[in-house]
Amino acid sequence: MMHFLLLFSRQGKLRLQKWFLPLPERERKKIVKDMTTMVLARKPRTCNFLHWKDLKIVYKRYASLYFCCALENQDNELMALETLHRYVELLDKYFGNVCELDIIFNFEKAYFILDELLMGGEIQETSKLSIVKSIEASDMLQETEQKRRSEHPSSSEIIQNTTCF
Amino acid sequence: MTDFLNIALLFIQYTVMTPSVRLQEMIRVIRSARTQGEERGIIQRECADIRSQFRQGDNGERSHSLAKLLYVHMLGYPAHFGQMECVRLIASPRYSEKRIGYLGAMMLLDEKQDASLLITNSIKNDLSHSSQYVQSLALCTLACMGSAEMCRDLAPEIERLLRASHSYIKKKATLCAVHIIRKVPELAELFTPSARTLLSEKNHGVLHGAVVLITELCERNPDTLVQFRKAVPELVQIMKGLVTSSYSPEHNVAGISDPFLQVRILRLLRILGHNNDTASDAMNDLLAQVATNTDSSKTAGSAVLYETVLTIMDINSESGLRVLAVNILGRFLLNNDRNIRYISMTSLQKIVQTDHNAVQRHRGTIVDCLKDQDTSVKRRALELSLALVSAVNIRSMMKELLIFLSVCPPELRSQTASGIFNAAERYSPSKRWHIDTILHVLTTAGGDVRDETVPNLIQLITTASELHCYTVHKLYRALIKDIAQQSLVQVACWCIGEYGDLLLKGECEEIEPVQVTEDDILDALETVLQSHMSSPATRGFALTATMKLSTRITDNVDRIRSIVSIYGSCIDLELQQRAVEYNALFKKYDHMRAAVLERMPVMDKNSPGHTNGDTSGEIKEPDTSKPKPVEAGLLSEPASQVCDLLDLLGGTDTPLQPSPAPTSTPTTTSSADLLDLLGGLEIKPVPTVSVYEKNGLSLKIQCDKQTETEVTVTLIASNSTQNDITNFTLQAAVPKSVQLQMKAPSGNVIPAHGLGQVTQTVLLNNPNKVSLKMRIRVAYSNQGAMHQDTVQIDSFPSAACQPSFSPL
């Protein structure tokens, strides 16, 4: 099970944090600090795995962002690398040639996409196509609702039953 | 006019610009702040704005305000005032508001917050919502931050969704069930029946979730595991389908069909096949197939192979399959990808004990990895190399390890050094090789070795008696080259002190002869003594070595005397004490010097980690130089045993009989050995006579004539009661013409059950040679009660020293 997933920039600024375990705010801040220090200190041609406390840390740098996650002992590190890559691919598909600014200005969308890929620290869906379709459908739902609201501001809101695919 | 413009701008800002732009505008403004202070100011303004928005109630803008707050929270600013807003938004009928509300709940609420309970009802309602995307939000949030209570409340609902819903919801419900089981293990039974049926799903997402769920169930309950073993054929079938299936674009990653699912199935098979022959047999063929057919050119394939190897090694697989697995790991070692080299070594580490020979075949590659750039890889290679050292390959491996030690990064040095020592101890082909290896390590990395290295090495040197000449020559040469490495210098000083005579002889079969004069040796030791690089412990070694040489060299004894007397006024307490005692050895006890400084006997091998100096405090005796008790914690090296001896002699020149303290540490026996050494001296053993015995307290005395008029009396008190005796004091009175000098007692607490003693020395000077008498008053507390008593000793006959006494 993944314990947490962090995205941070090369200057150590946090861009996304997903926690799959309940931890107090103070401890989360400390972990973020530890991770950024550790990962940013790594030299360029070193392997992507670290040991921290009793967890395996897997990180990968994509352009200006570091994607970092923490695994338990029995988890497969190489698969975690694939998971991070899958997430980047999904972001890329959604935003079209994703860059750090997209994630900064649309952070809530990044979270929505992540919530379609991972749940409870485990992979939820292995088909990229499936996830892209779900996100598009959710966005469509939100848009149609907002359009309806702006057209009929006084009517009560009902979320239509949407067809499954 | 300006007012109108302002109003117009506000109007434009709040109506024309869409809300999400407003969020993005805020982000832009925050990012443009040039200083931390400026950013704080902006954040404060925005938070005030957000708070007022929340207070306004439902106005269609709440979700945007919450989104802004979540951004602020990610920057690290407090956002707890948004918690209730999350609860309200989740309860809203609007999808956009629910979406951001649930996100807010996952970010701001955790199970420890009270507000989290308030969303339980909303989640329950949303779980049965007509829109699957709303259901999805509820499931996701529950799986992310659901507390045990919430899980208990909603478990039946989740179980229903597991069975009845569409695959989009089913896969989410499955992972939600996994979270519930992790939080409330007792609920596992609720999900076990449904889990089995989920394996027949075609949808990969659901299948993956099902495998995760079954893995979780089996890990927590051994009975469930037995139950699910029956599913092994089904799992094997699914796996086969994945491996042999034709190209499926939806699940394909670098030529592998759904590696995520494959890896999870392999992990489940590992758990099911562990320690079970039937299950292991059923998956043998499959594992062989996966191991041979999977293309490992990309990470996805390597990940599947890696998991396969782990599974093969953990179940009861046939030996051919195991060899195949180890060979895969060996191939990984040669892979260009550093990550794959790294995990290959971690896996090899796990199996090096059980499949030692198979791993040995790859020893060469592993040793090459010591030269890798990456520190993590180096560390793994080091651990593996140390595990692969055996009697057969010790010489070649040690060569590599010593090379590694000289170039390895500083954080690995102490691990390497201790690994080398362990290996050398277990497999060294000869004593000389062993000593050479340790010396090499001390020269290269002396600062990183553990403290016990010095006494262990010294002990090793004493046992290799035929090598004393060789060893002391080598150490001398190392010493004159460099005195920075403290452990090396300490061992060198000890050896020179002990075997200095061999050094002077000059000849040694295994080393080219070099003429070493007495002055050379003393120069070397003095350099160590005076150097600012030497630690206090090292200087102690050097001083004792210098002293020992006084019996091993002939010409320069005066030089030694002067060195020793200089340090009698040294600021360092330990050195001063030693110097003064050695001085005393020159002056008053010169007749004993040769015997005291004699060659040490071979030491018994102590238990690992044991240091010799600790128990020196057992035999407590006040010293002549300072009227206070001897420090119990002397330095932890064998040279201190000589000091112990001198401490003993410092008080009286009678050898104290070993205290009856029941310590089981070996050092006490070596001290006893040394005392036996003394027993061979000319001095007659003096009997201890008991003068008082009452209420468990017993008092014995020993007396010894120093000169015609001086007598030294030692009083020994011991306690055979159940409780410690505290505040123990002795007072003595003698006839008028006799001068009495009482030395400080060794302590004022006498442990119970005879576990320890208190000794006190009294010096009597009887110039008029009257008949000696002494009255002794004892005072002490036992179990809170004060006691006092008096003993009179009537005569101390001069010759035989047999006192006669009468208790009063």
Automatic annotation (TrEMBL), chain A:
Keywords: Coated pit, Cytoplasmic vesicle, Golgi apparatus, Membrane, Protein transport, Transport. PANTHER family: ADAPTOR COMPLEXES SMALL SUBUNIT FAMILY. Gene3D superfamilies: 3.30.450.60. Belongs to the adaptor complexes small subunit family. Residues 144-154 have a biased composition (Basic and acidic residues). This is AP complex subunit sigma. Residues 144-165 are annotated as: Disordered. It is a peripheral membrane protein.
Automatic annotation (TrEMBL), chain B:
InterPro entries: Adaptor_Complx_Large_Subunit, AP1_complex_gsu, ARM-like, ARM-type_fold, Clathrin/coatomer_adapt-like_N, Clathrin_a/b/g-adaptin_app_Ig, Clathrin_app_Ig-like_sf, GAE_dom. It comes from the Eukaryota. The keyword Isomerase does not apply. GO terms for biological process: intracellular protein transport; vesicle-mediated transport. Residues 602-631 are annotated as: Disordered. Keywords: Cytoplasmic vesicle, Golgi apparatus, Membrane, Protein transport, Transport. Pfam families: Adaptin_N (PF01602), Alpha_adaptinC2 (PF02883). Residues 684-797 form the GAE domain. Residues 617-629 have a biased composition (Basic and acidic residues). It is found in: Cytoplasmic vesicle membrane; Endomembrane system; Golgi apparatus. It is a peripheral membrane protein. Belongs to the adaptor complexes large subunit family. This is AP-1 complex subunit gamma.
